[in-house]
Write a structure and sequence with these properties.
Length: 482
């Protein structure tokens, strides 16, 4: 009977995620709230902990990036990328994903692809290259960059959760693994896409479209470009401030000894549990969380300012500097796609991670019993769990927040989890993510498609190749370094 109840509750969790993904946008987090209500009020489960630290980081980073976009700084970055692509149009299948990847690394969100994707399509058509080739892998690259960005929620959450579980790793330590691994994966996907499909002059479906004058005008009649847009110096200054903020964050992540320190509690290793008058038992770790200090079980020590606080302070301060010195309009920032998509991510992570933590925290013992034998022999199989959860969740940050504590509780080593970090990107599998849908619409040639059978779409092949190669390379690098 108990097993049946656990399965029923798991189905409720999965059902909430599935329904939320069907509606998309804010529904991912909101509908997770229905699942949470059923588990708490219907089954009496103890509520988990919402991921407030990650949410605060997203708000700070997205506010800073949104202000930079409002200043015109994003247009300058896109313009620089366009100059590179138009200078080497024959290499666009390799250069386009690199551009979208590094834009995401800088800004911390993959939604910057919306501005660059029409330019990629236009250059491909003008050069006679099948747009599906660069567009498919470029859309994948815009999301892969999230695990390589120093201000992305997935990276910061991985560091903070890992440190709390005894695996001491810094943001540069994560990027040292994820960036080269993901670049290898992207180049493998680009190589596989280089001769993908028929050339445009040999594609009967495309040639048939050209027979219609209206279709021909639609395909070739307009030119997407930002090269003719004059970028003011204030916009460039906003980019410099943003890059300076990133440099400060990376500096503090490397040299944490220069950060202010504060007295805080920590548990003494090997200490006994404390039994209260009502019979409740508290472990030293629980006492630390509650602020209870008992001699011999907890101790005071000097702790540097946490990196999640550093990121929030630096990002908010940088946003303020852009508003004051770079003519960035806060109202324009709030109306921009970067800020809006970031706030959607906040709601999604808030609901999804809270729902997942509620379920897993209540059945941690059962999960250990069920998975320990497999995990002990093949710890890397947690990558399949991350990937499958990401297919449902559509957020790499939410996957890390929801699943990483469970992975550590199962006894998986930190270096293994770092090695499989690229596997938290699986939401290309079902093509309902905004960047993928937008890419299909931007391709006027009609070669970038969502297939008749849903899963036979233009992003499946580059996505599977990229994630597989990235995970294998990251696992090898983590094994060598850690």
């Amino acid at each position: 009977m108990a097993t049946l109840i656990i399965v029923l509750q798991l189905l409720i969790v999965l059902g909430a995620l599935w329904v939320g993904s069907r509606y998309g946008s804010l529904a991912l987090g909101a509908i997770s709230g229905i699942g949470l209500a059923i588990l708490v009020f219907g089954f009496g489960l103890k509520p988990g902990t919402p991921p407030t630290d990650v949410i605060y980081i997203i708000i700070a980073a997205v506010t800073c990036a949104g202000i930079m976009q409002a200043s015109g700084g994003m247009d300058w970055l896109i313009q620089l990328a366009e100059k590179l692509l138009r200078k080497h149009p024959d290499r666009i299948t390799f250069l386009a994903p690199l551009c979208t990847f590094f834009l995401t690394v800088l800004v911390g969100t993959g939604h910057v692809v919306y501005t660059l994707m029409p330019i990629i399509c236009d250059i491909s058509l003008k050069k006679g290259i099948r747009p599906e080739r660069p567009c498919g892998v470029a859309s994948i690259a815009s999301q892969v960059g999230i695990t390589c960005s120093p201000i992305a929620a997935a990276v910061v959450a991985f560091v903070s959760i890992s440190n709390a579980n005894g695996f001491e790793v810094t943001i540069p330590g994560v990027l040292m693994i994820s960036i080269p691994a993901c670049l290898c994966g992207l180049m493998a996907a680009a190589a596989a896409s280089y001769h993908r499909g028929l050339d445009l002059d040999k594609d009967p479906a495309f040639q048939a479209k050209l027979q219609d004058p209206e279709q021909r005008k639609y395909i070739y009649g307009s030119s997407a470009t930002l090269l003719d847009k004059e970028i003011p110096q204030s916009a460039k200054n906003a980019v410099f401030i943003f890059l300076g903020a990133l440099s400060v964050i990376v500096f503090f992540a490397i040299f944490q000894n220069v950060l202010p320190t504060y007295s805080t509690l920590r548990a003494v290793k090997g200490a006994e549990v404390l039994t209260l008058a009502d019979g409740t038992t508290l472990s030293p770790e629980q006492m630390v969380k509650s602020g209870i200090q008992v001699f011999g079980m907890t101790e005071l020590y000097q702790k540097p300012l946490p990196m999640n606080i550093v990121i929030q302070i630096v990002m908010i301060a940088a946003a303020a500097l852009m508003i004051i010195f770079c003519k960035a309009s806060p109202k324009k920032a709030v109306a921009g796609p970067v800020w809006q998509s970031g706030m959607v991510a906040v709601v999604a992570i808030y609901g999804i991670a809270w729902l997942a933590d509620t379920f897993f925290s209540n059945y941690l013992g059962e999960m250990k019993t069920m998975l320990t034998s497999i995990i002990e022999q093949y710890p890397w199989t947690i990558a399949f769990v991350f990937f499958c959860v990401s297919v449902l969740i559509n957020s790499q940050g939410a996957v890390v927040v929801a699943m990483l504590p469970l992975a550590y509780s199962l006894g998986i080593s930190g270096w293994v989890l770092l090695g499989v970090l690229p596997s938290v990107y699986g939401y290309f599998f079902i093509p309902n993510y905004p960047s993928d849908i937008a890419t299909v619409n931007f391709d006027r040639s009609g070669t970038t498609v969502i297939g008749k059978y849903l899963l036979n779409h233009s992003f499946m092949m580059p996505g599977l190749i990229c994630v597989t190669v990235s995970t294998l390379v990251a696992y090898a690098l983590a094994a060598m370094i850690y």
